[in-house]
Amino acid sequence: MNNITIAIDGYSSTGKSTVAKQIAKHLGYVYVDSGAMYRAVTLYAIKNGLISEDDFNKEALVYQLDQIELSFQFNDQLGFAEMYLNGLNVEKEIRTLKVSSFVSKIAEVSKVRQKLVGIQKKIGQDKGVVMDGRDIGTVVFPDAELKIFMTASAEKRAERRYQELKERGDAITYEAVLQNVTERDYIDTHREDSPLVKAEDAIEIDNSDLTLNEQYTKILELVKMTLEGCE
Length: 231
Ligand code: CDP
Known about the structure:
Layout: E1 5-10, H1 16-27, E2 30-33, H2 34-47, E3 51-52, E4 55-56, H3 58-64, E5 70-75, E6 80-85, E7 88-89, H4 97-106, H5 110-123, E8 129-133, H6 136-140, E9 146-151, H7 154-167, H8 174-190, E10 203-206, H9 212-229
Parallel strand pairs: 1-8, 1-9, 2-8, 9-10
Antiparallel strand pairs: 3-4, 5-6, 6-7
The chain binds cytidine-5'-diphosphate.
Cytidine-5'-diphosphate binds near residues 12, 104 and 184.
């Protein structure tokens, strides 16, 4: 059977990565969390004093882009690849609300996007990949055989992310998470370069009222149909 490319885009905290990992595992495909790459660049910017509440030194970030080395390393126990920044595993650090609060500003910078999209295209050049993000079906893999666009109400998404962060032991409030989710939605859909938009040929799935299992079953069905169509 021919390998295909599966692009999953959508708003923040729609459960893209959960279902993308499940599908990749089922098919034996590579899963790539493109958001983790933007988060890793954000972590670099925070650690190097390039971005804070009231300052963002874009020029310095662009100048230092060559010094930012990103890679994914497969973790056998977890069953998916973890994000490494300059040789260090940053998988946990990149998921904090602090990183979330700056990441959309970092993702607006075209030079950052160029670098990350280049890496993403390379990883997916042989197909057999499930990638999730904001511009996967529109910019990274416009020829993907299957494109999914995930949505859910902001409240549902914030609730899910809040539970996730609370379970990790982060001291956060639901209100702060909801604010972050809506702020990022706004920046991601309004930026000039590669805004979050549903690709014309993407299939939209609103998972506000779907369980994880229902969502997985529905998307797996689409995958099977696409694979059959590609035979
Ligand atoms: O996990 P969540 O859905 O909240 O976000 P993420 O996928 O980790 O992405 C974090 C941020 O990176 C997004 O809010 C976007 O600003 C940016 N991003 C992007 O611009 N393009 C992508 N392909 C993936 C993420």
